[in-house]
Sequence to fold (33 residues):
Amino acid sequence: ISFSRDSDFLCASSDKGTIHIWALKNTQLNRRS
Fold:
């Protein structure tokens, strides 16, 4: 798990090798893939 330098994004990896990225300040950027 990691935050971007400006804390706009949160990134986490799963046990299946996928990476998940969430926008924290502008949540309209988040979508389900």
